[in-house]
């Protein structure tokens, strides 16, 4: 077997081990909370030695950041949300309503992965301020995404002429928030599909013409 093949197999094995650790960490952080989850328990669930977690992520805070980033993306590829295919396709829709429908559908998939871990992050940051230092300070990345979507949406046929891009961005930012998603899906027992249809209809009324 060539050294290239050996190297490729080792790299893939390391990647799969990393993903197992991230999955285990995400599950336990949501089940127990960040502060109440020892790294040893994450290692046990992932089937690795705790030293492997330290070697890969160095500490628990970095592990949390990787869990959040991977949940947002849906994979471990370093591709920003606005460069993702689903987002580019939504921007390319011909009408405001078509873009909005695609945007809400794509956001729902993200919320299914990330809403609960976002709540974990919020609580962790309140008790361990160093957690927030892992992300660049500045505009909220989620707002940046919604602002880009709003800019495209208000320029399309079917958008409301009396709603400027900044207001549209605020509406998207508020209604497509993880807090609202958790309120109706986790706390009130809605199905994600119900949330998607409901929030689409709300946004259509706010952002699209009759």
TrEMBL record:
One of its GO terms (molecular function) is transcription cis-regulatory region binding. Residues 38-57 bind DNA. InterPro entries: Homeodomain-like_sf, HTH-type_TetR-like_transc_reg, HTH_TetR. Coiled coil: none annotated. Pfam families: TetR_N. The keyword Ligase does not apply. SUPFAM superfamilies: Homeodomain-like. Residues 15-75 form the HTH tetR-type domain. PROSITE patterns: HTH_TETR_2. Keywords: DNA-binding, Transcription, Transcription regulation. This is TetR/AcrR family transcriptional regulator. It comes from Saccharopolyspora elongata.
């Amino acid at each position: 077997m060539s050294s290239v093949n050996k190297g490729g197999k080792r790299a893939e094995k390391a990647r799969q081990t990393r993903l197992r650790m991230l999955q285990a960490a995400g599950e336990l952080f949501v089940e127990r909370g960040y502060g109440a989850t020892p790294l040893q328990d994450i290692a046990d669930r992932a089937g690795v030695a705790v030293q492997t977690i330290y070697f890969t992520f160095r500490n628990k805070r970095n592990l949390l950041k990787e869990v959040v980033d991977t949940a947002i993306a849906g994979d471990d590829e370093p591709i920003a949300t606005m460069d993702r295919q689903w987002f580019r396709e939504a921007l390319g829709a011909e009408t405001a309503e078509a873009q909005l429908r695609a945007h809400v559908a794509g956001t729902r998939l993200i919320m299914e992965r990330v809403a609960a871990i976002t709540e974990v992050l919020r609580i962790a940051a309140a008790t361990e301020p160093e957690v927030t230092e892992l992300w660049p300070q500045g505009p909220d990345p989620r707002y940046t995404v919604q602002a880009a979507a709003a800019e495209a949406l208000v320029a399309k046929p079917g958008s409301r002429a009396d709603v400027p891009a900044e207001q549209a961005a605020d509406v998207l930012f508020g209604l497509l928030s993880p807090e609202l998603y958790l309120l109706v899906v986790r706390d009130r027992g809605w199905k994600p599909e119900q949330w998607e249809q409901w929030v689409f209809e709300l946004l259509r009324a706010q952002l699209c013409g009759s």
